[in-house]
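Standup notes
- HV: blocked on the assembly model, inputs below
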Amino acid sequence: MPKFYLTTPIYYPSGKFHIGTAYTTALADTIKKYKQLRGYEVYFLTGMDEHGQKIQQVAEKAGKTPQQHVDEMAEGAKKLWELMEIDYDDFIRTTETRHEKAVEEIFDRLMEQGDIYLSEYEGWYCMPCETYFTETQLVDGKCPDCGREVKKMKEESYFFNMKKYADRLIKFYEENPNFILPESRKNELFNNFLKPGLEDLCVSRTSFDWGVKVRKDPKHVVYVWLDALTNYITALGYLSEDDTLMQKYWPADLHLVGKDIIRFHGIYWPIFLMALNLPLPKQIYAHGFIMMKDGKMSKSKGNVIYPEPLIERYGLDAFKYFILREMSYGQDGTFTPEGFVERFNFDLCNDLGNLLNRTIGMINKYFNGKVENYPNNCSNLDKEVENFSNGIIHQVEEDLDTYHISNAISETWSLISRTNKYIDETAPWVLYKEEKLDELKSVMYHLVENLRRIAILIAPYMKYTSKKILEQLSIPENLQTWDSLSSYKEIKNLKVTEKPEVLFARLEADIEIENIKNMMK
Ligand code: ME8
C-alpha cells in the first residue's frame, strides 16, 4: 500500500483556536480522507507548540503555571478536533518527554558537529512572533509579520550556521521545482531569502526558561522554532528506541502550513534536516489566510469567529464546505456572515438539496421509486450530460491530487448545476404527460447516476451529506467507492426512498446573519 505522511503546524496554545486554525486542520483531514479513498495508508500528525515566552506570559496572566495552562489548552484543542471529527493519528505536544529528550539530543549533536556555535545576538524582537528582525526588515519600525511593536534586545545566544547549507538548499530548490507550493511562494522564498544570502539563525534564548534546556549550558533554552519544527520527526520516534514509524513514514509527503510560517518550513527546516542527515520532506503547501471584512481576525477588533457555534448551529458539513470552498488555492479568503448564509442557502439548499429532492420526488411519482438500468437509447442531451460528468470527475481528481481543494469543490458544484439544468432542459413532467416513458426513464437514470457521483466526490469533506444522498438513493456499497466513480452504467434495480429527507433546511437570512454577528468576539 502506498504511504502518505501528512502534517499540520503545531499550534500555539496562546488562545482558543479560531476558524483559521480549524481551516488548516480541516484541509489536512480532507486530504487524508481523499488519500485513503485512493488507497493510501495515511499518517496524519497534528499537535501543539507549547514552549516559549508568550505562553509563559499568558499563563502567568491567568494565574496558572505554564504546564497547567498548556494542559488545559490541549484538552480544549482535542475537544475541538473531536467536534470536527478530525481523524488525526497522533497529537504531539512539545512538552512531552518523547519530544523534549529528542530535542536535547538534536541540539547536542548539532553543537558537537559544529553547526551550532555560541555568540551574541542583538536585534529587534517581536514578542508575539518570538522572532528577531534586523533594522531593515522592520516595516515602519514595527514587526513585518504582525505589525506590532518591537523591542531592541541583546543576549548571549547559540547560532545555527545556516550559511554552510545555503548552496545545498538552493540546489535542492532548483532540482525540485514543486517542493514549495504554490509556485509564487517558492519564488518569494528563493528570491527574497535564499538568493540574497542567509543569516545564521539564533537558536537559543536566555531571557525566559519555559522551554527545552540546552543540556550542556542549561541557562539557555532551545529557541522555539528549532524545538517546534522537529516535532515532525520526534512524533515518529526519531532518536528513540522505537523508531518504526520514522522508518516507515519519513520523509513527510506533505507539510501543510499557513503562509505566515512558510519561511521557517521552506528554509530553516530543510537545513536542520540536512544537518541531521535526513531526507527532506517531499512538499510543503502554504495556504492563505481567512480574513474578516476589516482585516485580520483579532480579539482587540472583536472580530474573531470560532468554529464551535457555527458547527453547532449549521452542522459540520456546512461549516467545512464554507471554509474549504472560500479559500482558493494559496489565496486569502474572507469570512462574512452574509457569505456564509448565502452559500448555505444557495449552494447547499438550492443547488444540492433541491436536486436530490426533485429527483427522488420524480422517481417516486413516475416509476414508484424504481430505477431499472442504464437505458438503451440515450438522447444527445443525456450523452452530453454523461460526458460532462466524466470530465468533471477527471478534473476533481486532478485538483485533489494537487491540493486545489476549493477548485475541486467548485467543479463538483458545476456538475450539480449542470444536472439541475438538465432537469429544466428535459422537462420530465412534459415527458410524463406525453407518455414518453423510455425517455423519462433515461432522464431519471442520468439524474441518479450523477447524484451518486456527486455524493462520492463530496465524501472527503461532507461525510454526512454524502451518506444521506447515497442512502436515500439506496446505492449499493460497491457503487459507493471512489473507484466506482469511473462507472456510469452499473446501477440496476434501485428503489429510492419514499420519504426524502431534506439535506439542508433553508435559513432565514436576516436572522441568521444577525446570529453569526453575535457569535463574533
Ligand atoms: O505559527 N487563516 O502556530 P500558530 C488561515 N506554533 N490559517 C490560519 C489563520 C487564518 N486566519 N490563523 C492561523 C505557529 N492559521 C507555530 C507553528 S509548526 C512547526 C509551528 C493557521 O498557532 C495557519 O496554518 O500561530 C498558520 O500557519 C498556523 O495556524 C499558525 O498557528
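- HV (later): unblocked. Residues 338 and 513 are 6 Å apart (CA to CA). The longest helix spans residues 337-367.
- Next: hand off to the docking folks.
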